[in-house]
């Protein structure tokens, strides 16, 4: 599955990043209205949860074009590390970070997250739009747990929305696997990974899950 997802994001990095652009064509605005509204929703909700980032460290798993990294750096994060296995995505992230002078306080790593080795711990870990593409999320979540001291914030696409089928067809045609979640699946996932203190925020297409590490004692 990994090469398929990697190949897909290598090909679509520019289009994905364009969703965050402020100036858009009519077609792009229509696509936003129909399909991409959740991207803005989860961005706002995630930063509302992250709060004051001054002096904090953040790991962005599946950082893509670095839009969360950039915002975290703007909000004063001390160190921001982004990891992704698409070099085209990382090149865009590098460009955004450099443009605003944050390339020195940030680090970009080209790796599959399961192969990532790090002695550091991070206050926060993000996985936004990441679990959509992971067949077995358990190991990824356990790894995030090991690396995080305060909060993990992750999005999971809902199984039952009118967009689910459209999205599944679109991605299947493009050769990219995609996975969906319901509350029951999430409850089992967190139980199996020993994470019992979490809140599920209901967004239009996704669940945004905030996991508080200090309350997870297992
Ligand atoms: C939809 S994009 C989200 C990017 C960013 N988090 C955002 O929300 O703007 C998902 C990213 O996850 C990366 N990705 C998926 N599976 C991965 C894995 N196992 N290891 C590293 N990166 C992965 C893809 O290459 C892609 O850039």
Structure at a glance:
This protein has helices spanning 2-18, 26-50, 67-74, 87-99, 137-147, 162-173, 183-192; strands spanning 57-61, 79-84, 106-110, 122-127, 148-157, 198-202, 206-212. The protein is an alpha/beta fold. The protein has one domain (2-215): Rossmann fold.
Descriptive notes:
The chain is of the alpha/beta class and 218 residues long. It has one domain (2-215): Vaccinia Virus protein VP39 (Rossmann fold, 3-Layer(aba) Sandwich), CATH 3.40.50.150. It is 44% helix and 20% strand. It contains seven helices and seven strands, in the order ααβαβαββαβααββ. Strands 3-2-1-4-5-7-6 form a seven-stranded mixed sheet. Helix 1 (2-18) packs parallel to helix 4. The radius of gyration is 16 Å and the shape is globular. The protein starts with a helix and ends in a 6-residue tail after the last strand. The chain binds S-adenosylmethionine.
Classify the helix fraction into a percent range.
40-55%
Number of domains: 1
- Separation of the first and last Cα atoms: 31 Å
DSSP strand (E) fraction?
Answer: 15-25%
In terms of quaternary structure, the protein is: single chain
Structural class: alpha/beta
CATH superfamily: Vaccinia Virus protein VP39
The average pLDDT score comes to 93
- Element-level helix/strand string: HHEHEHEEHEHHEE
Quickly give the CATH architecture: 3-Layer(aba) Sandwich
CATH class: Alpha Beta
